[in-house]
Amino acid sequence: MRTICIIPARMASSRFPGKPLVPLLGMPMILHLWHRCRLYPEFERIVVATCDREIFGTVRAAGGEAIMTLDTHPGCVDRTDEAIAKLDLGLDERDLVLMVQGDEILVGPDMLARIAEAYRETRPPVVNLASRIYRTRDHDDPNVVKVVFGADGNAIYMSRAPIPSRARVADVPMYQQTGVIGFSAPFLHRFGQIERTPLEKLEMIDMLRVIENHLPVRIVTTDTETIGVDTKADRDRAEQVLATDPLVRKYLAVPVAAGSG
C-alpha cells in the first residue's frame, strides 16, 4: 500500500485571511503542518497543494514539495483531487491519499497511523479522524464541525450545530470532525466528479457529499484535542499548546515551559 500526503492550503480564508503564513512560535503555520506530517515515516510523498504563490514559495524555500492548483475549488478535498491528478503517481485501488488540511495544527504521527491502519484493515472509501471535544463552548461553536457515528464506526451526520444535543443530558459524547482524512485513491477521483449535495452546501462540510450518497465514512477517534485554526483566537490557543508539545521539539527549538519538565 502506497500512502501519499496532501496538505491543501489557501490564503483566502473568509474567517482568517492569510492564516497559512501566520507565525506560531516564529514559524509559518503551513511549515508546522509540513514538519508534523514528516514525523510519520510511511508517507511516500508529502505535497502542499495551494493556489497561492506565497504559500508555494514558503514551502519550497523550506525544502518542501508544493504544487499549484486552481483557485476555484469549493473545498479542500477538491483541491486534493486536483493535486493527485497533476502528480500522476499511478495510484491504484490499494493506495491511500491522506489529506491533512493546512490548519490542523496539532496533527501528529499517531493520528496519521490510526487512519492508515483503519484503511488497511477494511479499505473503506473514506477514513476521517474525529477528536474529543472537552469544552461545551467548542461544542456550541459553529466554526467547529461536530460528528456523530454509529456502532459500526461509520459517520451518521456532521454539523456545525452541537450534535448530539445536550438539551436533556449534559454529559454527551462530543467529537470534532477534523480535516485529517484518508481516501482510497480511486474514490478521491470519484469524489471530485460527484455533484455537490444539498446538505454539503447548507452546512459547508464536504464530507456530507459522501454521506448523502449513502457511502461509508469510517471514523477513527482520538482523545487528543485538536485545533483547526479558523480565527486569531484559535491561533493564539494553538501557539500556547505548541509551546509545550513534545513533537515541536523534534523540528523546532523552543524554550521549555516552566513546570513542563
What brief labels describe this structure?
261 residues, alpha/beta, Spore Coat Polysaccharide Biosynthesis Protein SpsA, Chain A, seven-stranded mixed beta sheet, two-stranded antiparallel sheet, 9 helices, disordered C terminus
Topology of helices and strands:
Layout lengths: L2 E7 L13 E2 L2 E2 H10 L6 E6 L2 H9 L3 E4 L7 H12 L8 E5 L8 H14 L3 E7 L3 H5 L5 E4 L5 E5 L15 E10 H9 L4 H6 L4 H5 L4 E6 L9 H11 L19
Parallel strand pairs: 1-4, 1-6, 4-5, 7-11
Antiparallel strand pairs: 2-3, 6-10, 7-10, 8-9
Helix pairs in contact: 3-6
Task: Explain what this protein looks like in three dimensions.
The chain is α/β, with parallel strands linked by helices and 261 residues long. It has one domain: Spore Coat Polysaccharide Biosynthesis Protein SpsA, Chain A. It is 31% helix and 22% strand. It has helices at 29-38, 53-61, 76-87, 109-122, 136-140, 185-193, 198-203, 208-212, 232-242; strands spanning 3-9, 23-24, 27-28, 45-50, 65-68, 96-100, 126-132, 146-149, 155-159, 175-184, 217-222. Strands 5-4-1-6-10-7-11 form a 7-stranded mixed β-sheet, with helices on both faces. Strands 2-3 form a two-stranded antiparallel ribbon. A hairpin with a 2-residue loop joins strand 2 (23-24) and strand 3 (27-28). The longest helix has 14 residues, at 109-122. It is globular, with a radius of gyration of 18 Å. The N and C termini lie far apart (39 Å). The model is unreliable at 254-261 (pLDDT under 50).
